[in-house]
Amino acid sequence: MDRKSILAMILIAAIIILWPFYMEMVSPPSSRKNIPAPIPGPSDTTFAAKSDSAPPSRSILPRQPERKTGQDNTERLWKNAPPARIAIQTKLYSAVLSNKSGGTITQWLVHKYRDSHGNPVSFVDSVANISLSISYHGNRVSLEDAIFESTIKDTAVVLNDTASFSLSFLLVFDGSRSIIRSFTFYPDRYDFDMSVQWQGFGDEISNNEYQLQWLTGLRPTEKNSVEDVTYFKTYAMMGDEKQEFDVSDQSGGEVSYTGTTRWIATRTKYFIVYMIPLDKDGQGCRMEGKAVLDQGRVSDKNYSVALNMKFESNRTDRFKVYAGPTEFTALNQYGEDLSAVLEWGWAIIRPLTKGILYSFNYLYSMIPNYGWVIIVFTLFVKILLYPLTHKSYVGMQKMKEVMPRQKEIQKKYKDNPARMQQEMMKLYKEIGYNPLSGCLPMLIQMPILFPIYHVFHETIDLRQAPFFGWIKDLSLPDTIATLHTGLPLIGDFNVNPLPIIMTALTFVQQKITPMTPIDSTDPAQKFNQKFMMYGMPVLFFFLFNNFPSGLVLYWTVFNALTMLQQYLMSKHMIK
């Protein structure tokens, strides 16, 4: 290839190599959507457990409060009730609520998804999660250790069909005041409704606000916990703008926002918790985090998020809490831009990323194996791009006519480089040859490859999706062994068959693809051509060796189809 072609290929390789760093970039916020209203919350005097078959009709998002900095222990503000635990079983999850803090989630098991040991995923930290906080007579008071009273004692509830289940917790505060937290759970959804009511309170609540908190972040769920933790972040939708907070060191950090807060969230790679106010927006939020380091690497991140709500005594504030997978179609049903936390890529490729995901899910409804879905999808892409690749190969075949005349020009004008270049361009135009024809097959893959990369790294649909044989999870590398090399910069090396197969096919493809004519007397051009022949396949091997096996499968099948197309065209192409 000539220098321009080599430069184009090097730039492409640089883009791919730097691609993982792009995952740190923040996607622009999506536009706000409307959401349906939920089931009405309990009345001001409600304090009981009940069943209800009516599903909620509206849902909206809250904002975050301040984290507790301490509690005034000079007076006892409440009397603790006896401990109580309520187990709730649905087809989607199994949950256990404690009356500590008026509804701490001590267990949340998601049945559909399994951890690396084959058990239902448990991503909610049971130490402390949903809680309330106020500033009472100027002192910060958190209710995370308060034991509320419940009319429902230790019990277990199984929700089938459309029946819902509601329960409430009561805390008598400072003798005459009371706090009521109520919950409603549904059998076929990952969200539940929650309400908060402050009875008998007045001016003693400082700043005329309270905080709804999620105190402990979430737990890792993936086998590769280090990669999982890279996705641990917190979010807030401030008006129509998504704010993101990510901590990366042990010293930790925090960030606060004021203004309209539609929701707050904390997530892992595949699971997320949202807290969404229903009747009124929040007034601001605070996100706080600290990283846990292990041998210089971040092994865990601990977050707390708080939503500031306007305090109104004797009024019920309603919220929706979602604790489930980061499944695009599920999040989209709630509106309010919940799916804005998903990293779909640059705005220019975001529609294509979503289109590929929809295509995968549609094909999966007919072909219940994502490995074959990828192969069929690759075939469709190849058919779609056939006109471009056909034109590319027609151009490359014309090199046979270009080479002898190019050598004559190089010999004739060897002492006049400018004239040589002019004559070469005139020759290319006369024959209809494009020097970049050899790069075109790779270039036309990039707009598809980048969105597919996002699909395999972001969507939970492909999590733990097997293909066949040793390929057990298309969202992870297809590792069959790990070599402990002890070499600097390499360390442990994973042996993955698919990247090896891909590299072998890439090398063969390079061998059978006509190369751009070069000046055989120019050592630089000879070196560049050999690098393209041998160096690029090796470079792509090390790059793809850590990519999800589904992405490597796509690239491998695409290249195999390209080789087949090239062979058939070389035998039957009409010039």
Fill in the keyword field for this structure.
alpha+beta, 14-stranded antiparallel beta sheet, 5-stranded mixed beta sheet, 13 helices, 21 strands
Provide structural commentary.
The chain has 575 residues and is an alpha+beta fold. The protein is built from 13 helices and 21 strands. Strands 1, 6, 7, 9, 10, 11, 12, 13, 14, 15, 16, 17, 18 and 19 form a 14-stranded antiparallel beta sheet that branches. It has a five-stranded mixed beta sheet with strand order 5-4-3-2-8, with no helix packed on it. A two-stranded antiparallel sheet has the order 20-21. β2 and β3 form a beta hairpin. α7 packs antiparallel against α8 and α11 runs antiparallel to α12. It is elongated, with a radius of gyration of 30 Å. The two termini are 22 Å apart. The N terminus is likely disordered.
What's the structural blueprint in terms of helices and strands?
Layout: H1 3-22, E1 50-52, E2 85-89, E3 93-98, E4 104-114, E5 120-122, E6 130-136, E7 139-142, E8 155-158, E9 164-173, E10 177-185, E11 191-199, E12 205-214, H2 225-230, E13 233-238, E14 241-245, E15 253-267, E16 271-277, E17 282-294, E18 297-310, E19 316-325, H3 328-332, H4 350-366, H5 370-384, H6 386-397, H7 399-412, H8 417-431, H9 440-443, H10 446-458, E20 481-484, E21 492-495, H11 497-512, H12 523-544, H13 549-572
Helix pairs in contact: 1-12, 4-5, 4-10, 5-13, 6-13, 7-8, 11-12, 11-13
